[in-house]
Predict the 3D structure of the following.
Amino acid sequence: MSKPVILTGLRANGEFHLGNYLGAILPMLQLQQRFAGEYRLNMFVPDLHSFTTPVEHAKLYLQIVQNLKMYVAAGLDLANDDTYIYRQSFVAAHSELAVILNNFTYYGELSRMTQFKEKGEQTKETSVTAGLFDYPVLMAADILLYGAEWVPVGEDQRQHIELARDIALRLNHRFGDDLLVVPAEWSQQLAFVGSGGGIRIRSLRNPDQKMSKSIDDPAGTILLSDSPEAAAKKIMGATTDSVGAIHYDMEKQPGIGNLLQILALLIGEPVAEVAGKWSGKTGYGDLKTAVASEVKVLLSGLHKRLDAVNEVELMRKLEASEYLMRDVAGQRLYKIQQAVGLRP
Ligand code: TYM
């Protein structure tokens, strides 16, 4: 249990989209391949975080299972003994630690979180919940309970990782440096994860916004459950610009930049290289066709493998991981409870 830990989680409040895949799932798969045996890999479902955006409660549990199946269909190797999958609400220590950490986190810090501000603005003040406000503290608990130094996430989670770091440093300062493992700084996270680290895939319709499941933007978002043909159509209809020639310039040509980024990640080449190959070309349609073709390959492969996922094996791995994680997280929680004076 002393191996360094790589950890990430994806909420189950809806289906995964291409941004989730390229920003979190693919980097985790690549890290699993790169570091098998050297690192421990925790890929969990933060199910308690699902409620921070609207969710169909009657469908939530099925969605959780479906998302776990998607991890496997995407290529997560469950046979790897250093890989753990679990549901946050099945390991009670997450909630318990969040309650403690709430008292070491400031109102001002949480009010400055961009995600809170953005989501808060989209909803009426009366329906902004304490859960949405407090969500980064639960996320810090998710990370700190397992001593995770490395947390591959998209750019939208940057502030939350930095907050988890600040909370860890604060507790260590107060109670001793060996209490918590401090997650690595953002720039180190990016260097560790490589090409897909800290990215922001944009909406295909409105490339100034990120691709997201919570905005009302079906044509701008490719769901991993979309048929390959429907997804290709969305790519072909992507908003571009009137510049007339391809350049990788996210300021002036965010739509084109987004397509180049998606293409680069899907074919596994650095974006600078891919951008270099397309630079100056005038056929936006050709670029879209190339992206659409890669997206089709991705989705048809995912759907085929999703049908073949062995659910019995998946549940066996899930329950075994949760059993072990209760122990791992419970031990860390106990150390923290001792430090803050709740245990002898
Ligand atoms: P969530 O569920 O909103 O998103 C899951 C992951 O997908 C990434 N992502 C994107 N990446 C690139 N481009 C996009 N358009 C895009 N949209 C989403 C997110 O950055 C994330 O990595 N708070 C987290 C879940 C969480 C978590 C954790 C993550 C809870 N506890 C502990 C890491 C560690 C969230 O809401 O992600």
User: Anything to note?
Assistant: DSSP finds 13 helices and four strands in the chain.
